Amino acid sequence: MIWFDAAVVLIFWLIFWNRWYNQCAVKIPVVREKTLGLPDNSPLVSIILPVRNEAHQIENYLPSLLNQDYPNLEIIVVDDCSEDGTGDILKKYAGDHPRLKLVDGQPRAEGWMGKAHAMYQGYEVARGEWLLFTDAHTQHAPYLLSQVMAQILPSKASVAIVLASQRQPSFGVYLVNLAVFGYLFMVTNLRKFMDPRSPQSLINDQYLLITREAYKTIGTHEAVKKYSSNDASFGYLAKLKGFVPMILYGGKTLVTTMYTTPARAFRGWSRSLVNGAWTSLGPVKGSAALVMVTFGLLFFWVVPWLTWLDGLENHHTTQSLTGFLQLLAVLAVLLLKSRNPWKAFGDLMVMPASYLIFAVMVGTGLIGAALRGGTIQKGRVIPTKKCLPPWNPDPERLRTDVPT
Hints:
alpha/beta; Spore Coat Polysaccharide Biosynthesis Protein SpsA, Chain A; 2 domains; 8-stranded mixed sheet; 15 helices
């Protein structure tokens, strides 16, 4: 029995090592304030912002785009048929800011997902050599675009993404988000994201910067119009065409509030978890993979607590020590994720409760998608049956578009 316990503890610490090696030992540039200069002839950047029913938060975030200090840009906001007064707020801003162009989005065309359609409409009126797609719930430091352009222009990359910090507006939202971000940390691999031979990709539509040429080569958002997970599918197709994104850590330069209430977070993640799995693997394999990962996370996030507490209650020293060493490994993983000892400890305390919410979200999302034939986003049913094409990358571009 003692050998079994030792093997379990070893597995937990091997998981920690794997997460460190594939997530944290990878060198990722950080966006910093005013550390790099721009060339005199900075190319025009078109910022494209799709919005739908964002009246509750758009005024908190739109000014951060209007205050960008990049010298050559235009801002295109596509109002995707909002029904809550978003359009009136945008018209007020458009009248005061000449760099802002407001596009009244057309109703979703047949065969299109709503957000992809809005992004494409923004592209149609954009003039920039570079396109920046971002979200309504992101807050940008004034120098963010300047510093990202200063890093990507000297490189070979045609695509860049910035990883945002997450703002938690309440404890309830934090509790819903915690296990989801833990799940993403456990299943993603930065090394493979940066490897042009791997199909694993990372595109974040909270901050996607891309050349017009690369965007057209990938097929624009028209290429992903039938996929329920726009960013995951666009990232996959980008690598399929040989475009490996430059990944940057935004830190405090890019902050996002994905959801403002626990109910919004629950509905949003229920949809996104299913969309991501089904887009990548199809409904059957995607559902099976999501269920298997959910059970796997049960043994990592929750079982160590049960083992340790049961050992203490029954005065079983070996069991208590086994559970404690497992909890230390879990704490070490959470520390890798947050880089903050106090936050990691707090995450450890509430992770079992967050995991239970996560499991319910997965179950709710899968059952709802099966019954409706899709997931619900802002009042629209999003079909989830379309999955990605086979992995067969472009060998020519693999040698020419890898970021330096």
